[in-house]
Amino acid sequence: MAPGRTQVNIGVLIGGGDHAVRAAHSLAADPVADLVVVVGPAKSHSFKVVEDTSGLDILVGSGPGAPARAREFGLPLIWDGNHPDEGVGIWGASVAGLAAAMASRERKVETAAAAHPDHAPGSGGSIRFARPVGATQVDSMDLGPHSVLVGRSYNDYAACMISAKKRRLTIVDRAGFLSGIALAAGAALWADSPRAVWDAGLSYLEIATGMGLVMAEA
User: Which of 178, 97, 164 is nearest to 133 (CA)?
Assistant: First the structure.
């Protein structure tokens, strides 16, 4: 367990796609989670389903409806949305957020980019990601102080890419797996102070790497 990380009881909000479910599996295998349950009404073959959230510390959710649902329970939300919202404890826990976190660790970043099947098609220039994602059109997205070029992957892979003065970093993996780890690592980052994942980029990337993220460097 990374320094400063404490065990927490985690409730997973089902809905908004399967990213939260995948995050739950990553968290269940990580020392940060003392307990992982699904918050009902829902069905789960892998986790206990509860409707009473007393005893839980945080909630993990995906998609635009997650913040409103988390506010109903009065618990901080770990979210893959890329902007702050009421009741959200950690935001940006997404593939684009991973790219911003990578950019936060580099000096003189020339390009930060992310591609994912869930992203809208880009309308600007083209960025070539590592195979099997390949080239895709992108648009610029501001994530805190970082500008990330975001585009759609047209298969079931996602990718992040950082080009800086001294090195190039790349992450490529199955989109579902990578999205789940990005969200789960945000939960492990929670420490009572709302923030974006790129505000604690090194810790976020270390946690994600410990959960199975693989980063290539050239």
Answer: 178
